[in-house]
Amino acid sequence: MLLWLLPPVAWFSVFILVPYAMLFWYSLGHTEDMRFVPGLSLANFARVFTDEPYLGVILKSARIGLMTAILSAIVAWPLAFVIAFHTRSASVKFALYLLVIVPWWASYLVKAYAWKTILGTNGILNATLQGLGFTDEPVRLFLYNEFSVVLTLTYIFTPFAVLSIYAQLERIPTSLVEAAKNLGAGGWEIFWRIVLPISVPGIIAGGIITFSLAFGDFVAPVLVGGSDSVMISNIVINLLGVAFDWPMAAAIGLVIITLGLGLISLTGWLEEKTKVRL
Amino acid sequence: MTTGIELRDLRKRYEGHGGAGSWAVDGVDMQIGRGQFVTLLGPSGCGKTTTLRMIAGFEVPTSGQILRDGVDITDQPVTDREMRMVFQDFALFPNMTVAENVAFGLKTRRMKGRFGAAEMRRRVGEYLDLVHLGTHADKRPHQLSGGQKQRVSLARALITDPDVVLFDEPLGSLDAHLRKVMQIELIRLHRELNKTFIYVTHDQDEAMAMSDAIAVMNGGKVQQFGTPREIYDRPTSRYVAGFIGHAHIVEASVVESGASGLSVRLGNGEVVRLDAPASLQRGEAVGLMLRAEDLSLAKPGDGELHGKVSDSLYRGEYIEYVVDLKGGAGTVHVHEPTHAAPFAHGDDVALKVNPAKAHVVGGA
């Protein structure tokens, strides 16, 4: 019987316990001449909250993550709704579902890069605007700023929001909608009073996923972000690979993980509170 | 002008793949008077639910008309019909309390201003009391039993005081005992509220016990529309005779027919007399409907039919004998009181037919 426990315990130890213990060990030390010196100091954690740019960038990353989560939910909800309620044929439903997932067969980098070619000064959007005569010279506002980062991240992570909202909407029996119509409720009333409230746990679940993924992203800021769009993962990468300040990187990592765990517990609790038993 | 609901040649076709399709409802004509309790009864796929859903407005008829108090409502949207439906799966809103569910119909935009907050609260309380759920107002649907859920669904349907209430197999997901309790409840509500109830079920006991009139449906058509007594005692077709009360039909031909009654001869030459006047051709092929409770067993020679007991089943309230008629003329079932059980498997017996209850249905 105990043999069955071996794989999970081994997995948990090798890939979770030991790495986190090491991360913690690193975070307590410091560097001298780019070399790691062990120690037992919490100074690095204090620096996360006092030294610029760490806290500022964490907050900015959180803002980008939040905006991505909100935008994804706004884009995903109607799509999930159409797939769940307005697609009668099973094959069309499957096709739409597949279309949502298909972008994930393409490389992340390619997708992020694609936005560069859409939003750039020689990009498709500017070419179209100039062609239609809306503007004489390329609009530079589209690319290399927070807007383009959020847009790219929204595009990339929306499928996660669609799937979790869809999973929730799909569980709503058609008889609920029929009952509401039968009782004299119009389309908007059904949306506001029944369908949307029941879908809230799906929105939250999708929100956690898109927020976490966007918060920790480091590709989009590099490809489509401006010089000021550095996110916290970029900082960590720099600390690790350029500055060789592993203790600081480890401290930031642990702070983010703790924040993440807190957030997940909070939203998990919210999800439980808003859950309805169908 | 007729009051109530009238269906005129109502049809609904569902298209399948590659031009294949089928008529779910194939020409239904029906008059349902105001305040009546009418049941659409039939096996699954007979078109009863589709008919109800067309009346509610959930399905658009392929052709035909639905009239309400003489006004054509065929194309009226669901939300405007103000006929309330009680669903088999209850369809309670899981994100609302019992009281909020019941109040839903009062709070829609179209109802705005018709009820003040105090009036609404009073009314919700009144209708919860009506279905004996006064103490459950703040519970969520998932905290209720099946029977309680259906009561909430009823209160929600009744609270806006609709003329017409539609029921789509509302007791289908309840257990046998609860079904009986709810049947009595529904009869009480119908009596007290004086509304038209249109009720769909496949359960003939339910239909017989509650309805003013039953429409027996099969293959998208109404086979017979009449009071439970008419349908049970005087079915007009073999289908209805076989579906209601599981009557057994024995092939026979008319010997004599007139105002004073009817005689038919079975395939084995034995003759049965019926009281009901009839005007049938001599020699015409008919089906003789023999219900278990209209037959009694006797010693050979003491009845007009003869046969052999092939099985006897103890049913508690009665013993059910399965009797093969002489000469392979057919098989009938006979209910006998349990205190007298003088016959056993293989015994030769005679059968007495109650001439007031036996009945013939036309055609071979």
Overall 3D form of chain A? globular
CATH topology of the domain at 61-229 in chain A: MetI-like fold
Q: From the helix content, strand content and strand pairing of chain A, which structural class follows?
A: mainly alpha
CATH architecture of the largest domain in chain B: 3-Layer(aba) Sandwich
* Overall body shape of chain B: elongated
**Number of alpha- plus pi-helical segments of chain A:** 12
Q: Trace the largest sheet of chain A across and list its strands.
A: 1-2
Largest sheet of chain B at a glance? 6 strands, mixed
Helix and strand content put the structural class of chain B at alpha+beta
Low-confidence stretches of chain A: none
Q: How many β-strand runs of chain B?
A: 20
Q: What's the helix count of chain B?
A: 9
Query: What is the beta-strand fraction of chain B?
Result: 35-45%
Tell me about the largest β-sheet of chain A: 2 strands, antiparallel
Pfam families (chain A): BPD_transp_1
Membrane topology (chain A): Multi-pass membrane protein
Family (chain A): Belongs to the binding-protein-dependent transport system permease family. CysTW subfamily.
Domain ABC transmembrane type-1 (chain A): 58-267
